[in-house]
């Protein structure tokens, strides 16, 4: 994998190349090459979509400097018609770093096959409150877990000589206010909660960072000398490229260039000629431009000239191998939350009802910049029909009809939760450049005020759940769904997240016992949303406290409905011979895991550390290791 040591071997050569450039050529490296009109065309023209082809930036043909070719993510490659994996939150539920590295490798291959060399999809923001609309794009609520899974994706992507970009740096955990909110927190919260996972990925060799839209301590993150220079480069030793978040990530030419921003993406709006004039007028030093230019040239040359592990024909895009991997991810992510002896269904089940407005929908996540366009999506009814089952579809809008349907079948699957209209990347009805309607975008997204189900869906489960003893609630969503309002009305319940292009297949495989469920919740599920940190989603100021998620509930002595890391199985495991050894500052824990049930399955061992008798206020316990 391409790491910092490999990249720095190109430093002298990059300095020599930059020394031969004019000021205008150096500045031309620092901007995306597409026009706003091109973006509008992609959004609004039938048969096209955002980032359908990689978005280029920089490059210098005269001196042999390749351009950056951006492909978005993270549930797959946005360009082309690529493999759609489960959303990152679902993959986080697998707690499987080896699997995530294989996902990264597949994504890297598809980036290359699409003509790209840069993947902007290692999203590792920490959801301070699970209502954050884009939290489906991250691995969970726990900083250590975010770092471990993010590192795995970085390794996989960069194994294919594709730059891996970690985003959105930093404190970007609100969607509706992302362009205007200024986040503040104390230094300990910054260093122990919101930044460690970014450092983990930098230490793992990530070649690029995307700055966030929001402000931190009243300074835009894309302009922040503290974040982009002091922390990222001076403290962490980062050698790679910083890019802005798209279109609105640079607000001021001088502030961004002096603050450490390397590339304005994806269009030239406030860099380009405006940056050239700022240098000529003395507001930005040419030394700052040289530093950015050398960094860009060094990094791109290192990846361009690395020996590829394979060839990258277009036939790799959504190939059988990658589709099987997407299915494996879905299998390992689905999390069984409740099972009163209902699952798995036996072979006597021949007729199944799928009830709910989401039951027959291709629902793979939000419709913002992370939307992937696979050649097909397997819905749950399609997957059940492939098993030669009789399937009755009922949208649940009429509760009495749903009750009649439930009574007429062998088993019932109630599908409830969210889609791209409820949560996801927020697109304002009228923006500075892109108008949602004229751009052809079909969802607003945003943050969730309500952490439970829609009222009508909760009422549907309560009305139908007791009719048929073989009834399972399948929950769809990107983060915590509080279930205390309806969970006693149904004998079995499963969190499916947004399970990707093979999601229907995976759900069917698990409810019929072909695969043993093994996912674990990467977030806590409280009884009451008020147990979580308060966030005013539409605001210009937000303070982040030290405690959130499971650490907050445990500190307050509040029992959750489902704890972080919870997930049931069809089999049973025992742990034995637990050992902990300490050598200098390294603590090593080990144990044996044995499947003592009658079903083949996987278990996730989780290691937590506590702080008894600490003189400093600390969490009751923190996750500091896991293995599948």
Question: What is the level 1 CATH name of the domain at 330-556?
Answer: Alpha Beta
Radius of gyration: 24 Å
Give the helix tally. 19
Parts with pLDDT < 50 across at least 5 consecutive residues: 429-441
Pairing-aware structural class of the strands and helices? alpha/beta
Specify the biggest β-sheet. 6 strands, mixed
In CATH terms, what is the fold-level topology of the domain at 330-556? Rossmann fold
Which architecture of the domain at 330-556 would the CATH scheme give at its second level?
A: 3-Layer(aba) Sandwich
| Shape assignment | globular
Strand order of the largest sheet: 1-2-3-4-6-9
Helix content: 25-40%
Structural description of this entry:
The structure is a single chain. The protein is an alpha/beta fold. Among the domains are: 227 residues, Rossmann fold, CATH 3.40.50.1700; 55 residues, no CATH class. The protein is built from 19 helices and 20 strands. The strands form five sheets. The protein has a six-stranded mixed sheet with strand order 1-2-3-4-6-9. Strands 10-15-14-13-11-12 form a six-stranded mixed sheet, with helices on both faces. The protein has a four-stranded mixed sheet with strand order 8-7-5-16, with no helix packed on it. The longest helix has 20 residues. It is globular, with a radius of gyration of 24 Å.
């Amino acid at each position: 994998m391409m790491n910092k040591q490999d990249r720095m071997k190109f430093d002298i050569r990059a300095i020599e190349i930059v020394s031969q450039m004019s000021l205008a050529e150096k500045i031309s490296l620092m901007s995306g090459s597409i026009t706003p009109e091109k973006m509008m065309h992609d959004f609004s023209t039938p048969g096209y979509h955002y980032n359908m082809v990689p978005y280029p930036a920089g490059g210098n043909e005269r001196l042999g400097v390749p351009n950056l070719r951006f492909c978005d993510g993270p549930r797959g490659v946005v360009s082309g018609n690529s493999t759609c994996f489960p959303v990152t939150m679902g993959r986080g539920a697998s707690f499987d770093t080896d699997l995530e590295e294989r996902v990264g490798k597949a994504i890297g291959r598809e980036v290359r096959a699409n003509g790209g060399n840069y993947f902007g999809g290692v999203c590792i923001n920490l959801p301070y409150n699970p209502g954050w609309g884009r939290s489906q794009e991250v691995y969970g609520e726990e900083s250590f877990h975010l770092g471990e899974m993010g590192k795995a994706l970085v390794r996989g992507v960069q194994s294919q000589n594709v730059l891996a970009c970690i985003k959105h740096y930093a404190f970007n955990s609100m969607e509706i206010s992302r362009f205007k909110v200024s986040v503040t927190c104390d230094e300990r919260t910054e260093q122990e909660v919101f930044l460690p996972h970014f450092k983990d990925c930098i230490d793992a060799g990530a070649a690029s960072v995307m700055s966030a839209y929001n402000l931190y301590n009243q300074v835009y993150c894309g302009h922040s000398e503290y974040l982009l220079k002091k922390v990222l480069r001076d403290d962490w030793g980062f050698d790679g490229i910083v890019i802005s978040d798209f279109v609105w990530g640079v607000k001021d030419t001088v502030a961004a260039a002096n603050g450490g921003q390397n590339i304005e993406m994806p269009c030239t709006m406030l860099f380009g000629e405006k940056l050239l004039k700022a240098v000529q007028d003395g507001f930005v030093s040419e030394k700052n431009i040289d530093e950015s230019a050398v960094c860009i040239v060094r990094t791109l040359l290192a990846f361009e000239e690395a020996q590829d592990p394979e060839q990258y024909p277009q036939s790799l895009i959504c190939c059988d191998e990658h589709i099987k991997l997407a299915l494996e991810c879905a299998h390992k992510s689905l999390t069984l939350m409740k099972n009163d002896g209902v699952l798995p269904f036996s072979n006597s089940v021949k007729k199944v009802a799928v009830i709910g407005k989401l039951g027959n929908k291709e629902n793979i996540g939000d419709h913002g910049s992370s939307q992937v366009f696979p050649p097909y999506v397997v819905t749950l009814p399609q997957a059940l029909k492939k098993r030669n089952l009789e399937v009755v579809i009922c949208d649940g809008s009429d509760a009495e009809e749903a009750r009649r349907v439930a009574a007429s079948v062998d088993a019932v699957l109630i599908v409830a939760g969210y889609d791209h209209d409820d949560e996801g990347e927020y697109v304002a009805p009228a923006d500075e450049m892109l108008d949602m309607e004229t751009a052809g975008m079909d969802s607003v997204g945003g943050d969730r005020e309500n952490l439970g189900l829609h009222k009508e869906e909760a009422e549907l489960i309560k009305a139908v759940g007791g009719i048929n003893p073989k009834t399972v609630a399948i929950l769809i969503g990107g983060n915590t769904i509080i279930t205390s309002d309806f969970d006693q009305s149904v004998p079995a319940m499963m969190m499916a997240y947004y399970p990707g292009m093979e999601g229907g297949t995976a759900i069917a495989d698990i409810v019929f016992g072909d695969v043993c469920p093994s996912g674990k919740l990467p977030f806590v599920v409280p009884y009451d949303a008020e147990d979580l940190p308060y966030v005013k989603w539409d605001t210009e100021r937000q303070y982040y406290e030290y405690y959130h998620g499971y650490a907050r509930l445990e500190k307050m002595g509040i029992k959750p409905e489902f704890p972080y890391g919870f997930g049931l199985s069809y089999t049973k495991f025992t742990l034995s011979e637990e050992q902990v050894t300490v050598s200098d500052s390294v603590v090593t824990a080990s144990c044996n895991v044995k499947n003592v049930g009658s079903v083949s399955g996987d278990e996730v061992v989780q290691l937590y550390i506590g702080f008894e008798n600490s003189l400093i206020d600390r969490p009751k316990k923190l996750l500091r290791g896991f293995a599948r």
